[in-house]
């Protein structure tokens, strides 16, 4: 049982890495907090659900379509709001409020469009039989979600560390002003990162109906808390650190559900607070507050 | 401190008088109560966000703690006045527990505070604690139900909170807080004990929210954990404050009167459409008027109380 | 030698580490009331760390700081302020949303352990009287630097730590600033000046300490320092420390 919980937690945690990945990329590059992140995930879930219900599109194909569509939508959205936001005196704080407004818009629009009925995609679409891994049986959808997350993390790593636009992105992450001064088109770099962040959230959404059982337009805020817990544990602003956060989150959640299920829902919040208090900079962080 | 007395007489006292008299003119006391409640919460938010820059996304945690502090005491047969004291005590206690969060800055603090409020909610709503909190099944305080008295208590609390904002706006302590909001490092050089100052502001705003929660519990007398810990309470308090202008006395007041007025005008019938408009309003506000309505005047060098 | 009063500030073997890096590696210095001491050295030699450590922003990892006959290890800046130690910052840190007058008012009410100076006179003496009602965030950077100084002076300090106040000032402002610091010292204030501009150091200081790699390699008059072999090596060779 312990072993099963740990292994299941690893796969589950890999999925929650993907849930937090886009949020962390956005914070790392732009120092803004996307409170609508969970709702973008929700939109991804509904996109996958709609594609499946209307034309029986396979979720993996839907993920690909969402990757392109969300990136393409994200770039103009970036230009519409972020440059203006970043000119404000306290942009980090205001971003919380602004994206809360967006969150309200998305949730309301989704409620109007889709109603409040719970929607799901049948699990058999991603494989009829559970998968045996290292002697344990896991649902096929979990394994797919974990695998796609791993691919996304690897792709983001390659982008950031081995591609020219990724290098520029890291330059902006380490110091926006200096990057601007050295002639980098910061807005172009950021708009792409913004689009990618939304796309990552959208892809996480494709698997939400499987991982959560079903989705409604109201799942955004809860997903957001989970995403926050993951990225705070894994170091805010360090996208690759999200993996560590996701896995710690997944494993501890599975252990809690197995052994102390009544209090399992407290875990993300308590983990988040504990990590922030003990190591405000995250487990991999080195940012120190001076006053 | 002549300016402070003037603001007290010209703004705080009339507001309190109008609010206290209003039930004689308008029958929907619950709606009036909600206005009074949100003015109080917005000013309590103002004390911490407007004067120190900490944005407590989980402000509702104090409100809920106060509501449940009142409810648990009232269910145990305590007199409502004493139960209100318990509510305030619950808020102060939670505030003290969360004081270490003040070490965090910016988004870190906001997120941690949000998580803390959620955690308190999850503890209160947990079926395992049903013998004490009634868990997810909600509480009923019909034994102490007193809409008129609880309304007047809320009005008094609103007056006291506004008076506290006047004190912060015009007094030495508020100035020190604003210095620390602008730059904690040089505020320390200028002699401000930053840890003590922000802890006091934090506990003050926690006390306000928890007493408001206590008054709320008394007023509506039947409620569930979701009601007392509703995230939109935090959000409303933030948005009202921001819309009017944080760090001023009038800003949050105007914010509540305008926005909560609009909310009640169009909001109740079709909540989704209201949510849509509300969201759009917030976005536009942050992008085009980040310092609130009063900044239209302050930018022109006019001092707004 | 005439019998001199004991130094107001005595620093002995001060050590400050950042990870494995020793930003201060056994620094010692004395500063008397009415004296201006310059701290010079290449970038990274520990000058600002020295001010931050004496000023309470960073805790020393070793050594002793004695002020007015009393040890002040690790006291927070607001306590030091009330004891009469204050400072300016390398890049000015005004309270941007408060007016210029409120900026100095905070310091006078919160940070002054004795009798604060008259604020209007103070602002006038620093050429800020015309700006008193403006938000500090609207000042230009030279004015903000002057405001930093005004705020420090509002606490009536006996020891003033000045971190690169001259950088960014034009020659006229520079001259005026030098005269101000001299005048303060003549009235009995002890001043520690970190600065790159040698002309300014020359004009203001009685004495300099040349630092390299967290240590003092020379102490004495600036004119003697430029003839010193070690000092030449550090400034011209640039091979060590840096």
Automatic annotation (TrEMBL), chain A:
Top-level taxon of the source organism: Bacteria
Bilayer disposition of the protein: Multi-pass membrane protein
GO molecular function: transmembrane transporter activity
Any single GO CC term annotated in Swiss-Prot or TrEMBL for this entry: plasma membrane
Subcellular location: Cell membrane
Transmembrane segments: 12-33, 40-57, 63-82, 94-117, 137-160, 189-212, 266-285
GO biological process: amino acid transport
UniProt KW keywords: Amino-acid transport, Cell membrane, Membrane, Transmembrane, Transmembrane helix, Transport
InterPro entries documented for this protein: ABC_transp_permease, BCAA_transport_permease
Family, as annotated: Belongs to the binding-protein-dependent transport system permease family. LivHM subfamily.
Name the record gives this protein: Innermembrane translocator
Species assigned in the record: Acidisphaera rubrifaciens HS-AP3
Lineage of the species this protein comes from: Bacteria, Pseudomonadati, Pseudomonadota, Alphaproteobacteria, Acetobacterales
From TrEMBL, chain B:
Domain of life (superkingdom): Bacteria
Primary subcellular site in the record, as a coarse category: membrane
Any GO molecular function: branched-chain amino acid transmembrane transporter activity
Transmembrane segments: 56-76, 82-102, 109-129, 149-168, 200-221, 233-263, 275-297
Membrane topology: Multi-pass membrane protein
Keyword Cell membrane among record annotations: yes
Alphabetically ordered keywords of this record: Cell membrane, Membrane, Transmembrane, Transmembrane helix
Annotated GO CC locations: plasma membrane
Subcellular location(s) per record: Cell membrane
Name of the protein this chain belongs to: Innermembrane translocator
Organism phylogeny: Bacteria, Pseudomonadati, Pseudomonadota, Alphaproteobacteria, Acetobacterales
UniProtKB/TrEMBL annotation, chain C:
Family matches, as Pfam families: ABC_tran
Molecular function via GO: ATP binding; ATP hydrolysis activity
Record keywords, A-Z: ATP-binding, Nucleotide-binding, Transport
One Gene Ontology term, aspect cellular component: plasma membrane
SMART domains: AAA
Residues covered by the ABC transporter domain: 9-238
Record protein name field: ABC transporter
Organism: Acidisphaera rubrifaciens HS-AP3
